[in-house]
Structure formats: C-alpha cells, structure tokens
Amino acid sequence: MINLAKKDISHSLGKFLVTAMGVGMLLGIVLIMMGVYRGMVVDAEILINDINADLWIVQEDTLGPFAESSRVHEDLKNSISIIDGVKYSEAITFQNIQLPKANMPIRVMAVGYDPFGNINPINPDRLIQGSKLTKDHYQIVVSKETGFKLHDEIILARDKYEVVGLTEKTVSSGGDLLVYISLKDAQKNQFSYSNNRVRNDRERGISGNDTTMVNAIIAVLKNGYNTDAVAKNIKEWKHKSVYTKKEQEDILGKNLIERAAKQIGLFTGILILVSTIIIALIIYTMTLEKMKEISIMKLIGIPNSVIIKMIVQETLLLGIIAFISGNIFSHLIYEKFPKRVVLEISDAWLLFIVVIIASILSSFIGVKKVISADPAAAIGG
C-alpha cells in the first residue's frame, strides 16, 4: 500500500523540516537544562573530592563552609591530630574574592591551605602548568579560565602575588573558578581589617582582631578506624560540628543543588509542554489543510484506521526529526555556556521517550478531526 504519510509530507517538505527544526531548538534547550543540572552536580563535588578529607570539623551548630559561615581557631588542628584514629589534620579557609583584570574583575573562590602540610587541595591531575605553592607568602595557583598565565602578577589587597601554577576544570560548588593561596595569606586577607577599621575599632575601645581563625579543620583517618565513631568522639570532646565526606556532599546536594534542581525541572517541564503543544498545533493545521482530501478518501472507502495511521506517522516523524535536530543544536552550543554543562546519553534517551509519548498524544487532536470528517464534504466542496 502507498505510504500516505510519505506522500503528504513530500508536498510540503520544506515547511515540515523547518517546523521540526524549530521544535528541535526547544528540545535542545531541554537537553541543555538537563546538562546544567548535571554540571552543577559535578561542580559541587570537585573541591570535596580534590581535598578528599574523611572529616570536616567546623563551627558548632553550623553546616560548614559550603553552606554557611564557619569560624574555628587554627590551633584546633593540633588537638584534632592527637585524637585516636586521626592520621593528620590541617586548617583550611574559603573566601570569595575578585581578581583584578583590565576589562573587569573576575569572581573566584580562594582556597587557603598550608603549602607544607599533609593535605593538598590541588589535585595533581588538574595542575596543567607550573607547580603547587612552595612558599608561605605571595604565591597563587589559578585556573587557566581566569586568563592569567605563569609568572603574571596579581594584586590582592595591597600585596603582589606571582602565578606559579595553572589548573583546569577547578570550580567551587557555586561554579566560581578556584584559586589557591597559602593559609597565612588567606588569613591575612580574610580575617584582618584595614587600617581605617583598626583605628575606628580602637576609638570604640575594641582592641585588635584575630587572624588565627580558619573556616574548617579537615582530617584524614588511619586505616581501620570507623569514620562515624571518630566524628562522634570529636563532637563530644571538642564541641564542634563534625561531618564526614558523605555528609558534606549531602549538605551540598540539599542546600545548593536541590532547589536549583526543582527550578530546572519546572523549566524543563514547561519547555516539553510547549513543544508538545506546538507539535499538536502543527499536526492540527496540517490536518485542516487536507480535510477535503481526507473526506474524498473516506468517500471512496478508505477506512479511518489508514488515515489515522497517516496522521500518527507524520506526528512521530516530526517528533523524531525535532529530537535529532535538538541533539545537534545542544552539542553545538553547550560549550558556549559560562558554567559547566554535562550532556549524558541517558538524558538524551529519556528525552527521546518523552518526545515519542508527547508526539503520540499530540496526534490525538488530528485523529479526532479525521474521525469527525464528513465524506459528503468532498461532494459539497
């Protein structure tokens, strides 16, 4: 039997393809939105995985530096290091700063750590040029995406820092590029006040400021020790909040990703709904344009099932072409986005199933029109 859908589409092929590609752009944005969510998950885990600490000791009754403000004394690391089960512990800071650039400042997160300590947050696999920090002062390792190069000078506060290393694909949980400075420099920048502030505080009777603070103490445990048991011991004796690596990941997921996931999911759902409505309207319009021909087919005895099959085939073909063009579109533009976009095959297959279901549902409006078509209209026309 002649394929009626093929014959019908061939009469308006250009219009059909343009329409499919237009819907495909919407589907491409759906894939991008899925990729944005996947990218947020990857970004949220980078710093925690690079540090790879078993325990995070933070200010009491806080969720830690990735969720809210946390300040503890640096010397806490010494008393943590002698607790049974702890192999070694280090102090660490996190601070959002602006790196000066000629055109505009770049927002980054500065990670402060002891260059001579036992825990180095710089993953060697991400260090593509230069070296890690080798001094206590005035060195900085930056992400290559900042645009700085080896041996460039960067002014932070009133000090000049030399770029000694470049990393790639290093971002904070919020998507900001990471830079690394020594713990002493980080404490000076984060916890010390300007001269005017110091003078003002003295006039108010406030003496000095404590630059021996850090945002967290991180610890690596000895083999064979239970992480939860050691964490409970530290909570009881040091009166601090203690989180395992898994708990920190969960906090990030709940406080940062969960709300964004809901927003992205809602936006994605709206785009899929809009795409379904557009496909339905196109099929309805195409059906209206050939109502006389459909009436003639019914008049000469062609059953409804054959005509309905034509409508469903056209709708499915429209959806499949839209899905293919959407995939192509998303892969062409995803690298242009400022934050990480991760396109996964599983997401594409999931969207394909949704598109097929949406296409079948969209065809019902055309099918309904076919069923209600009057064969007598062919004679009256």
From TrEMBL:
GO cellular component, one term: plasma membrane
Domain ABC3 transporter permease C-terminal: 266-375
Pfam families: FtsX, MacB_PCD
Subcellular localization: Cell membrane
All copies of domain MacB-like periplasmic core, residue ranges: 18-236
Sorted UniProt keywords: Cell membrane, Membrane, Transmembrane, Transmembrane helix, Transport
Membrane topology: Multi-pass membrane protein
InterPro entries in UniProt: ABC-4/HrtB_transporter (IPR051125), ABC3_permease_C (IPR003838), MacB_PCD (IPR025857)
Residues annotated as transmembrane: 16-37, 264-285, 306-329, 349-367
Name used for this protein in its record: ABC transporter, permease protein
Species annotation: Arcobacter acticola
